[in-house]
Amino acid sequence: MKAIVLFGPPGSGKGTQAKLLRDCLQVPHISTGDMLRERVRSGAENGSPVAAKLQSGALVRDELVNRLVAERISQPDAAQGFILDGYPRTIAQAEYLGGLLEPRGLQQVVVYLSVNYNIIIVRLCARRQCPVCGTLYNMVSQAPKVDEVCDLDGHALMIREDDREDVIRDRLAAYDEQSMPVLDYFRSAGHQVQEVTADDLPPEEIARKICGILENNAVKADDRTQNRR
């Protein structure tokens, strides 16, 4: 029973890896970014500071994000574990998460996706999303069959506000200031932190590497349990 925390800068591939790992681990993928964008699309946050922060790439207040995560992981499909994508992003969120997981006996394993920032800027500037089904494309590495048109429903693709270059640079600066200290917090709290370099490898190869790391850790944990017996 594990909570897999995918940690890394914006554009490091957390969402892509979460979807691939979901099939490997058979646990749900929980994205705070997706949940917040859905609240804006549904009208729950129209005109609120949340919508403005998502457009600018700024962090949404801890209280709201914590509440969304607490509600989501309380659902039956998350009872045996889950993959967190985009959370926690602050030390306060990391502390809150620990308080949620400890009573449930869920062990945190942090997978840190390390990517060069220049690669991230190129990658995100080429990203497009379908406004209807939400499918993500990359005009360099994963282009649609018809230029700027969704393969699934034929709608014109859009550039997300937080994928503009000036916003990307602001997001990376905010990550350095507010989120990188969370990595030190994880280590000091005794959580496993597995670093995976994700610069130029295909997403499927990165996912296989992560699955291998998680499987090896599970075997070692079983061995330690048997030795204690």
Structure description:
By secondary structure, the protein is α/β, with parallel strands linked by helices. The chain has a single domain (2-116, 169-228), classed as P-loop containing nucleotide triphosphate hydrolases (Rossmann fold, 3-Layer(aba) Sandwich), CATH 3.40.50. The protein is 49% helix and 15% strand. It has helices at residues 14-25, 32-41, 49-56, 62-73, 91-101, 117-125, 165-188, 203-228, and strands at residues 2-7, 29-31, 81-85, 107-114, 127-129, 136-138, 192-197. The strands form two sheets. Strands 2-3-1-4-7 form a five-stranded parallel sheet, sandwiched between helices. Strands 5-6 form a two-stranded antiparallel ribbon. The longest helix is centred in the C-terminal third of the chain and has 26 residues, at 203-228. It is globular. The chain starts with a strand and ends with a helix.
